[in-house]
Amino acid sequence: MSTTLLLILDLAGIAVFASTGALVGVRKELDVFGVAVLAVMTGLGGGVLRDLLIGSVPPAALEDWRYLVVPFVTSLVVFAFHPTFGRRERGIMLLDAVGLALFCVTGAVTAEEAGLNVLSSSALGMLTGIGGGMMRDIASGRVPVVFRGELYATPAFAGALVASVVHHEGWSQWWYIVAFGTCLVWRILALKRGWSAPLPPGTAHV
Amino acid sequence: MSTTLLLILDLAGIAVFASTGALVGVRKELDVFGVAVLAVMTGLGGGVLRDLLIGSVPPAALEDWRYLVVPFVTSLVVFAFHPTFGRRERGIMLLDAVGLALFCVTGAVTAEEAGLNVLSSSALGMLTGIGGGMMRDIASGRVPVVFRGELYATPAFAGALVASVVHHEGWSQWWYIVAFGTCLVWRILALKRGWSAPLPPGTAHV
Amino acid sequence: MSTTLLLILDLAGIAVFASTGALVGVRKELDVFGVAVLAVMTGLGGGVLRDLLIGSVPPAALEDWRYLVVPFVTSLVVFAFHPTFGRRERGIMLLDAVGLALFCVTGAVTAEEAGLNVLSSSALGMLTGIGGGMMRDIASGRVPVVFRGELYATPAFAGALVASVVHHEGWSQWWYIVAFGTCLVWRILALKRGWSAPLPPGTAHV
Description:
Order of helices and strands of chain A: HHHHHHHHH
Largest interface: A-B, 33 and 32 residues
Strand content of chain A: under 5%
Subcellular location (chains A, B, C): Cell membrane
Membrane topology (chains A, B, C): Multi-pass membrane protein
Number of strands of chain A: 0
Helix content of chain A: over 70%
Organism (chains A, B, C): Aeromicrobium yanjiei
Family (chains A, B, C): Belongs to the UPF0126 family.
Distance between the termini of chain A: 43 Å
Protein name (chains A, B, C): Trimeric intracellular cation channel family protein
Oligomer: homotrimer
Number of helices of chain A: 9
Structural class of chain A: mainly alpha
């Protein structure tokens, strides 16, 4: 995948995730700098984790100033206009799904390019997608939403798996759109139709 | 220690820890994929942390597909048969103690082989043992059980210290069994006899 | 900055942060080893995170035994004499501010010396300062105090920014005192005067 395209997609995903972090911070009534710290952590967390695990240090987030500026500015915008964002909960959910789909693909491709096998690249792509949101929820004292597997882990793993196979087999880059779409469509369908993965035997579906 | 033996012991410890993670997930009523994510994190967390800290990247957990498959399959089995596992709480505690003893020894030996000094290797062996459980508890919103020092930190450090000294002095590998036993026996005795380490002065023992 | 001076300042900051971790552990009524684990994590967390992110592994905390011994001994002292420390809450807050100021400067300088740009070095200096406290609070189930941005993130970033610029421009090392003072004075003024950063629009200041 071209480096410029990867960068743009990465920054777009970071902005989206940062905005979800900022919204959580606003709801916890953090001050503007607390909101910024939480937003930057949410936006960069997944990618930094991925870079640490493949030994690409310093991580991209510290090599390139845009990686810090994008989530920071995003957090200020959300802070200032949060009632507008808050009312658009459905829009946020959609953006969050787009961010997840972007990250699982770029994460899997980055892992493949670092020489990992297909299974590990898929796992790392999934982790890139869910890592930031997990840090956001843990740091702000919520049970991580990513543990609702049918909404996060599964579509992210599916998208990352498709992307890893595409890279591994050397198929045309257009196929990455299929990887992206797999995660996005799966996630949105799960959300809209209220899909839910099996609960532990003996537990009532609520 | 032979590489194959280290691998087998490592995988055994991972399966054991993954099953404790899966049980916590089942009790939190996560769906099957959420349970899998929590279980894999619990099983691999300590070893990944160790590998990151000694600069062995990508960590073993991403280099070898068995490291991902073992905790994943374990989580599915626990998910499906959790009432059976849940009733065997005492068995789980025993398995958990075995996992801790395995990880503190393999963690310390890995750190020694990376050239760390005896004290650091012991600390890292302990961290390998308690890291996964700490992540499990933090991610699922419980106060980490590893902070009950007399049950976790102390026996794990003791076992790791013995293993580090054995490696450092180049003693026969049979001595690793002593390291393993130190942690295991200590932990089980602490559990059975209700040993408790000193509480802060002025705090009533409850 | 001379290596010896950096080491001494680093160990001083570690001791201070470890004592705050130990106090939290004592209040949570952890036993002596649980207190030690929490204290060591609080003392070393920020620096280990910094070292991981700049690829300096094994981190200083594992290379040099003093990094492990200092927070461990600190935790024992706090454990034994905690009523004395607990009564000196104001003294602790002051020490905490000194620790933050030390870490943001040493963190930024270490990042600069690893070749990061000024913005990234400032961010990493800030993270070095707030990382340990964040881990302490997350691990012990409190909402991280570092999210009160006006008391932590902002002064730490300001101090780290001054230190990064000083290093980048090659100014006299005496200027590091200005960096240190920027963080310390800002933090103390914020504390004493009850400064608070803007809250989200529509939120009542409480």
